[in-house]
Design a protein that fits this description.
globular, 4-stranded antiparallel sheet, alpha+beta, 27% helix, two-stranded antiparallel sheet
């Protein structure tokens, strides 16, 4: 008895469907990111705000044509460094460019010290504004330290309240 039927052979001959595109969601400023990166960025933004640091995105997801234009501008000496089309994590919705200011700004220092806790890291040393969401290869800091390895000053814990006792 033959185990293969024409239906099975025909099914194997069909090309596989392409994987679905990453789920992109809208974030503040009219940009888009992969939903996991957007969730992590939102958590990071909220934590930064607790320390009076405002994070603002200038670029997120880029389509192939957008990346192609940026790359051509870069090659002609008219734009910032840009990856070849098809090689940028912006095209996957996993990279964000943030307003940083100077390298010693409070915002930049906060990101260096805390971004790894949210799965973000700088991957282009010459671009302090470029951060990529890479949770599987970005490890959180050691307890008691920040992402740069500096020891974190923990707030002194307040003593437990002592129950009042009656004088009777």
């Amino acid at each position: 008895m033959c185990l293969f039927t024409t239906a099975v052979l025909a099914a194997e001959a069909r090309p596989r469907r392409k994987a679905k595109a990453a789920k992109l969601v809208h974030i503040d400023g009219g940009h888009r990111l992969h939903r996991d990166a957007a969730t992590a960025l939102q958590r990071m933004t909220l934590d930064a705000a607790k320390h009076d640091v405002v994070l603002r995105v200038t670029s997120g997801y880029r389509s192939l044509p957008e990346q192609r234009v940026l790359y051509e501008q870069y090659r002609r000496g008219r734009g910032n460094k840009a990856a070849r089309p098809g090689r940028s994590n912006h095209q996957r919705g996993l990279a964000v460019d943030l307003v940083i200011g100077k390298r010693m700004s409070k915002r930049h220092q906060w990101l260096e010290a805390n971004a790894c806790r949210f799965g973000f890291r700088r991957t282009v040393p010459s671009e302090p504004w470029h951060w990529e969401y890479r949770p599987s290869s970005t490890f959180p800091p050691v307890v008691g330290h920040d992402c740069t390895g500096k020891e974190v000053k923990r707030p002194k814990s307040t003593p437990e309240p002592v129950a009042r006792q009656d004088a009777s």
